[in-house]
Amino acid sequence: MTPTRFCIVRHGETDWNTEKRLQGQIDIGLNAAGQAQAQAIRAHLQKAPAFAAVYSSDLARAWHTADIATADLGLAVLPAPTFRERHYGMHQGLTPAEAAHAHPAMYRLHQARDLHYTYGNGESLTVFATRIHDGLSALSEQHRGQNVLIFTHGGVLDIIYRLATQRPLDTPRDFPIPNAGINWLTHDANPSANSWQIITWGDQTHLAGSLDELT
Predict the structure, then answer these.
(1) Fewest CB atoms within 10 Å of the CB: 1, 31, 35, 119?
(2) Cβ proximity of 54 and 77 under 8 Å
(3) Of 154, 212, 170, 206, nearest in space to 37 by CA
(4) H or E, element range at 41
């Protein structure tokens, strides 16, 4: 059976990305650099294989990236709230320094990637990961053997990378997730196979430069 191929793109840059401010599900738009990155994705996608469908998180930074980048594909962008960023509760809108000062005990749980920490009124890592796993599985079943394009967020891509590499959720991130980076993966429905495989990760060849808050 032909695997499903996913092209998963992180949204372009926002002002809050440059400030390393935790966006979560606060609806922040692209800045000028992010809009230029979306145009660069658009040019890159003209050379990509044909897609059966395009999905995007309904948060503005992902949706605007998708709207610009898919202008030449002849496909409607379908809203996919399943691929929203994680809800970071009381930490949303804060920089790391601000979070550490305002909520020191809670910030330590954030830094430790505690699996059950909800930021007071947000989403735990285990619940977030289950949301992303279920969403990808549903799309893989719906588009079996086809190419699917998704626009989403850094936290979502963190979960996807760990899913494909079987890396534990609570280990520190040591892999890139740049703004406007392009990632290709396959999903094989054959239960005897390793279901998820990364083809390329964090591709920035279409960009002059891109921000990753980890660095």
Answers:
(1) 1
(2) yes
(3) 206
(4) helix 32-45
Which of 173, 68, 176 is CA-nearest to residue 112? 173
- Residue in the structure block whose two tokens are 């960009």: 207
Write out pLDDT tens, residues 11-64: 999 999 999 999 999 999 999 999 999 999 999 999 999 999 999 999 999 999
Full-model pTM:
0.94
Fold of 1-6+53-86+123-182: Rossmann fold (3.40.50)
Q: What is the pLDDT of residues 92-115, one digit of tens each?
A: 999 999 999 999 999 999 999 999
SS3 state of residue 193: coil
Please give the Cα distance from 40 to 68 (Å, whole number): 9
Retrieve residue 41's tokens.
């994705």
Residue 202: enclosing H or E segment and its boundaries?
strand 196-203
Cβ atoms of 8 and 157 within 8 Å: the answer is yes
CA gap 108, 121 in Å, rounded:
17
Give the type of residue at 106.
M
Cα torsion angle, 138, 139, 140, 142, sign: positive
Using CA atoms, how far apart are residues 153 and 134, in angstroms rounded to an integer? 16
Residues annotated as part of the active site: 11, 85
Structure token pair of residue 182? 């392009």
Is residue 178 classed exposed, middle or buried when 0-12, 13-18 and 19+ CB atoms within 10 A define those classes?
buried
Q: Which helix (H) or strand (E) holds 111?
A: helix 104-111
The domain ranges of the chain are 1-6+53-86+123-182
